[in-house]
Each structure stands twice: as structure tokens, then as C-alpha cells.
């Protein structure tokens, strides 16, 4: 999910999920001011980056808000479906765009992983409500990051914090890679249980995303019961938690002539399979080993990670920590105890304690 939150006075609820719909709540700091949610299904015509913009327009997305087009949150985006969560102490206003003397809302963007979806975040391409917004291939880490950069520019927001879980972690790094430098203000990037390079799945008996995608591709596009899907996945050896989480991607079928009791998938599984392949192969070590000035990259390893963190990867990150200090950048390694790959569900309190330094 790519979630967008204006931070001050905002409670931190929801999920970051690649494989984790076991919902948990981060500790609340205060009540929510506003949530605005848009999906492609109630989409209105809005101004957007045209073909001629390509990367050139987006390269302003994480720097100062030099905007030429009007737009606000009263209209949905034609780029990605998203939820905006605004804290009680901060409220976005079009005046912020026009008057540079006004403080910019401190904004965080949250990015889900493969087969995740927006709850109080943003649906990435091929996922959830964004699946109905047609996207050109390739469906990759890079193109997914470009979508999010276009979205934050369209919304006139300047992220100070980017949090990505699993696939979303690489998307966060790719956003930094593609955005213009230097940044107008410091940006903190959190990569939750993902490495910058080759993905190494865990041992036998664990829930592998690639295997899950393969099994899902054999199931009907419409099913009469969510429990039937859960049972089918259990028979294939997937855990109950993962099976129950996957069926949150089913929605009641509303097509003419369909039975009211049928459900259909809301994702583009073919596109997701391409995205996962890109996740396995994309190499973003260059961002970690040559961190742009003003960027601080934080890696968080789950104690019981689904993926194998090779000793060489850990050593390389620690070496980058030392180099970044010398170059006025930042790289830091964290370990979340008592947590598997679904860090936000397994140990939400511990995760919040680690992340909190970025939000206060």
C-alpha cells in the first residue's frame, strides 16, 4: 500500500501488508482529524501528468513544491487509489501550495508489499482499487515507484518519511533513486524486512509469495465462498494466517446476472507476478552504498524473517553505515525481536518504538 499520512497528531493504525492482514493497531498519539479515501471506481476527471511529462515532471516530487497545476484532495487521483489520513494538528490546504511562507504538512507515505492492499494506505498498481486504473508495463519496482512519485506530486505533498514493507521497501529505495537531488529537506526511508538486492526465500514449509501467486492463478476468477479458497490454500500447504489474509482481496461480484453470493478478485494477478519477479531481481545497492545527501535509510530485519538475510548482505549494510556517516548521509540497521515477516502484525508495539524516531 502506499499510504499517505499527515503526521502531526495522527494515530498510526492499519497494516503494511505483503503477507499480513492480521490487523494490528500502532499506539495512538491522538485522534484523527480527517480521512479522505478515493478509489478508481468513483473517479472524477482530474488534471494529471501527461505523456510529455514523463520523468521530468516527477523529478520534482520529493523536492520543493514548485507546482504549475491546480489540484486538491476533493477529487480522486487517476494515478493510484489512496487514503489520506490527516492528524489533528495538521491539515493540508491549497494555500500551502501557493504561499511558500506557510509550513508544509509533515507527510509520510506507506507502501505495501506483494498481494497487499490499501486499508489506510494507497493501493499500488495491479492491487486493490488501483488494479482498474490501467498501467503500461513493465510492472516493476521502478514503474511502481514512479506511480507513487507522480501521486505525491499530483497531491502537492512532500514526503518526509517513506515506509515500505517487503516489495514496498524496494519501491521506497527506487523512489529515492528516481527523485531529483538534492532534496529540499531531509527524508527518512524505512525498508521493513527486505534487502536491497537479490531476494532469498526462506526454508521449506514457509509461505512463499511466488508459490502463492502460482496457486492463485489456478483458482477461478469468481468463487462462491471465501472459505473454499481458504481450504484450497491450506491443502496446498499455506498457513491459515496467509490463507485468511489472501481472501481479503475478494469482493462481492456485482456484475449483471451474477449470484449475490459470489466473489471476485480485485487484483491483476498477471501484473503482480511480474512485479514479484522484478522484486526478486532488482538491485538497489547503489542507493545504499552512495546515499544521497539528506537521505537516511533504515533497514529493519525481522527476527524470524520469511527471507534469508545473507551474512554478506548484513555486512554490506553495516559497511554502508560507516561510509554514509563519512558522506553526510545515513544508513542504519535495526532488528525487530519477536516478529516474523509480518512485522506490523507480529510486534506492532516494538515496530512503532523503532519507527517513532522518524515521526517526532
UniProtKB/TrEMBL annotation:
One of its GO terms (molecular function) is hydrolase activity. Pfam families: Abhydrolase_6 (PF12697). Residues 122-352 form the AB hydrolase-1 domain. It comes from the Eukaryota. The keyword rRNA processing does not apply. Keywords: Hydrolase. InterPro entries: AB_hydrolase_1, AB_hydrolase_fold, Serine_prot/Carboxylest_S33. Belongs to the peptidase S33 family. This is AB hydrolase-1 domain-containing protein.
Amino acid at each position: 500500500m502506499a499510504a499517505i499520512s499527515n503526521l502531526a497528531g495522527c494515530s498510526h493504525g492499519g497494516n503494511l501488508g505483503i503477507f499480513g492482514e492480521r490487523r494490528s493497531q500502532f499506539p495512538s498519539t491522538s485522534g484523527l482529524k480527517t480521512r479522505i479515501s478515493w478509489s478508481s471506481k468513483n473517479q472524477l476527471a482530474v488534471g494529471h501528468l501527461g505523456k510529455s511529462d514523463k520523468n521530468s515532471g516527477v523529478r520534482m516530487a520529493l523536492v520543493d513544491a514548485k507546482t504549475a497545476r491546480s489540484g486538491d484532495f476533493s477529487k480522486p487521483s487517476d494515478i493510484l487509489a489512496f487514503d489520506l489520513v490527516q492528524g489533528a494538528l495538521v491539515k493540508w490546504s491549497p494555500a500551502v501550495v501557493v504561499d511558500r511562507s506557510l509550513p508544509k504538512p509533515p507527510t509520510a507515505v506507506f507502501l505495501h508489499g506483494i498481494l497487499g492492499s490499501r486499508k489506510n494506505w494507497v493501493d499500488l498498481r495491479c492491487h486493490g482499487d488501483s488494479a482498474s486504473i490501467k498501467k503500461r508495463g513493465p510492472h516493476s519496482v521502478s514503474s511502481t515507484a514512479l506511480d507513487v512519485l507522480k501521486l505525491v506530486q499530483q497531491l502537492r505533498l512532500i514526503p518526509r518519511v517513506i515506509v515500505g514493507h517487503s516489495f514496498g521497501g524496494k519501491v521506497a529505495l527506487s523512489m529515492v533513486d528516481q527523485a531529483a537531488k538534492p532534496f529540499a529537506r531531509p527524508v527518512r526511508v524505512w525498508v521493513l524486512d527486505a534487502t536491497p538486492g537479490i531476494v532469498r526465500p526462506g526454508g521449506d514449509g514457509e509461505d512463499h509469495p511466488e508459490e502463492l501467486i502460482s496457486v492463485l492463478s489456478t483458482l477461478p476468477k469468481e468463487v462462491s465462498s471465501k472459505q473454499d479458497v481458504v481450504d484450497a490454500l491450506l491443502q496446498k500447504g499455506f498457513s491459515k494466517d496467509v490463507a485468511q489474509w489472501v481472501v481479503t482481496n475478494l469482493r462481492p461480484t456485482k456484475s449483471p446476472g451474477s449470484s449475490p453470493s459470489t466473489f471476485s478478485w480485485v487484483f491483476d494477478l498477471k501484473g503482480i507476478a511480474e512485479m514479484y519477479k522484478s522484486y526478486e531481481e532488482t538491485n538497489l545497492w547503489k542507493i545504499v552504498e552512495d546515499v544521497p545527501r539528506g537521505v537516511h535509510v533504515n533497514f529493519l530485519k525481522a527476527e524470524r524473517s520469511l527471507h534469508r538475510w545473507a551474512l554478506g548482505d548484513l555486512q554490506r549494510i553495516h559497511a554502508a553505515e560507516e561510509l554514509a556517516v563519512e558522506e553526510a548521509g545515513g544508513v542504519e540497521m535495526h532488528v525487530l525481536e519477536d516478529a516474523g515477516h509480518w512485522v506490523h502484525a507480529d510486534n506492532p508495539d516494538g515496530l512503532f518504538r523503532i519507527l517513532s524516531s522518524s515521526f517526532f
